[in-house]
Amino acid sequence: MSRIAYFLILLSACFSSCTIGSDNPNKDITLEAFSGFKDNNLFIDGDSIRAYIAGMMRADGQSLPSDRYVHKYYGGGKPFMWISYGGVTASADTLLRYLSTADESGISPRLFRMEQIAADLETVRTLDMNGGSRPINRILARLEYNLTRSYLRYISCQHFGFINPNTLYNRLDTLSNDSSGLKWKRLCDLRVKRPDSAFCARSLACIDTDTMGAYISGLLPKGRLYGMLVKHLNSAGLTSAERIKTLCNMERCRWRLAVMPGDSRKHVQVNIPSYNLRAVDGDSVLSMRVCCGAKKTKTPLLSSSLMRMDVNPQWIVPKSIAVGYVGRTGYMHSQGMFVYDKKLGKLPPEEASYTKISQGEQYIVQSGGAKNSLGRIIFRFENNFSVFLHDTSAPWLFQSAVRAVSHGCVRVERPYDLAVFMLSDKNSSVAEKIKYTMSVDMDGDSGGKPKPDRKKMVSNVRIDPQIPLFITYYTMYYGSGGGLVSYEDVYGFDDVTAERLRPYIRQ
Predict the structure, then answer these.
(1) Average per-residue pLDDT in the chain?
(2) What was the pLDDT predicted at 453?
């Protein structure tokens, strides 16, 4: 905006009170009457505004992902979005209304410079330059930059969260630390979305439009669990520890996945701290206890889709466990185990070799049946950890309060009910075959035992359509009555999450 343009605005303001038929008090006015407006502090200059913005960007740095886009935008000389010949857009007031509610979500107001924005808006709208001590270009630069910075910060943190869980949780447990370097165990594969250039560009395009308010509202976190957490956060009498725990779980609700639980009418969600599985089909919820990975062999956080059920599956014993079975031939015989050699095929337990198992030349395999560690049925889904949902040969473990006992897989309390849930058409014939196969004696036809009826059996069933699966970590989650319940931070994830959140939340 040029100096001339600003002069014309002021000039038009002087004549705005004139009406037809009235005696114009300014009819004899001359240019000399405006000599007082020659103060440089009252002239708007685009180059000066950009110079001030550049200085603020250098001073601020880029502490959040959205900040990088702000710097890229103004560094590229793009048009101003909040200031114009008409002043400051009304969208600034819309944004301030949303920013004023950030505290209800536990987000620190310090991130948004609300007091500075409000003060600068008042200055511009009242033209109170305090005798030139508040140069107009500097004020407009602060407004333009701070509004954009705060806008992108607010919608990004509300829609995506502050933390990338893959970055945070995959740097906790050491896999190895030797001459080849430090390696970490992968504990998380949530494939979360993060604010990118396309999101930021789409968001900036909504500024100074009638849709901006609706756009912001559409980005705010939703879902029943998040609503319960917000209500709890703003309840009276919370201790500092309770508040931090609530904020950690609100952050987890903000993480955006390619497919969210609420996107699918039918889905399965396993929550590790509560040792609970919820199979949701619309308003119907099948809930059951689960056993999860021990602290040294944590169940990973992930999202996938359940695609197949295998009944009476064989178990290929993981190498880390299999080497401990070498020489325990009596135990292996009693558990229906055998050795599979890549060159020689199926061998008895006596042929197990520690060296060959370590080198991947042999495997120890457990036959399907009642003794199988996977139980009678396994629910398979694609993942990078070789973990599954499955039945167990040790059902008494579900009576324990703390059920972090597995090598990473999730053991389910009611496997048959979960299998029926997976059937899209609730086919009674398939359900009966699954039930029979899960109960039949697989050692039949030997030792005088009844021979299994193969016509009544099924070995695997496709899950069609596939059902979204989410393995999550909420230390505040649904209880048996549907209310909000606090659970033990079994893997210690809350501590590291809270530490990473500390700069962004209200303590």
Answers:
(1) 88
(2) 84
For residue 208, give every residue at least 6 positions away whose Cβ sits within 8 Å of its Cβ, in sequence order, or none: 81, 82, 89, 90, 91
Closest to 149 in 3D by CA, of 212, 209, 204: 204
Residue 46 has φ and ψ, to the nearest 5°, of -60, -40
Closest residue by Cα to residue 247 from 235, 230, 262: 230
Type of residue numbered 82: W
Structure tokens at 450: 């009844």
Q: Is the dihedral of CA 274, 277, 283, 284 positive or negative?
A: negative
Of the pLDDT bands very low, low, confident and very high (cuts 50, 70, 90), residue 205 is very high
For residue 241, give both structure tokens: 């520890």
As a whole number of angstroms, the distance between CA 479 and CA 499 comes to: 27
pLDDT tens track for 400-409: 999 999 999 9
Which range (47-56, 186-195, 417-426, 445-454) has the least confidence? 445-454
DSSP letter assigned to residue 398: G
Report CA 141 to chain centroid distance, whole Å: 34
Query: What's the CA gap between 304 and 382, in Å, rounded?
Result: 6
Per the CB < 8 A criterion, the answer to whether 291 and 406 are in contact is yes
For the whole model, what pTM was predicted? Answer: 0.86
Reading the block at residue 322, the tokens are 């299999």
pLDDT digits (tens, 9 = 90+) for 447-471: 566 788 888 899 999 999 999 999 9
The whole-number pLDDT of residue 441 equals 83
Domains and CATH numbers, the chain: 39-166 (no CATH), 221-252+489-507 (no CATH), 259-313+368-474 (2.40.440.10), 320-361 (no CATH)
Contacts of 181 (CB under 8 A, 6+ apart): none
Helices (H), 27-104: 46-60, 65-75, 91-99
| SS3 annotation, 457-484 | CCCEEEEEEEEEEEEECCCEEECCCCCE
Is residue 299 classed exposed, middle or buried when 0-12, 13-18 and 19+ CB atoms within 10 A define those classes? buried
Q: What are phi and psi of 196, to 5 degrees?
A: -120, -175
| Long-range contacts formed by 163-169: CB under 8 A, 24+ apart | 163/251, 163/255, 163/497, 163/500, 163/501, 164/192, 164/194, 165/190, 165/192, 165/252, 165/255, 165/301, 166/190, 166/191, 166/192, 168/496, 168/497, 168/500, 169/301, 169/493, 169/496
**Residue 411 contacts residue 293 (beta carbons within 8 Å):** no
Q: How much is the pLDDT for 491?
A: 97
Among 475, 469, 490, 494, CA closest to 278: 469
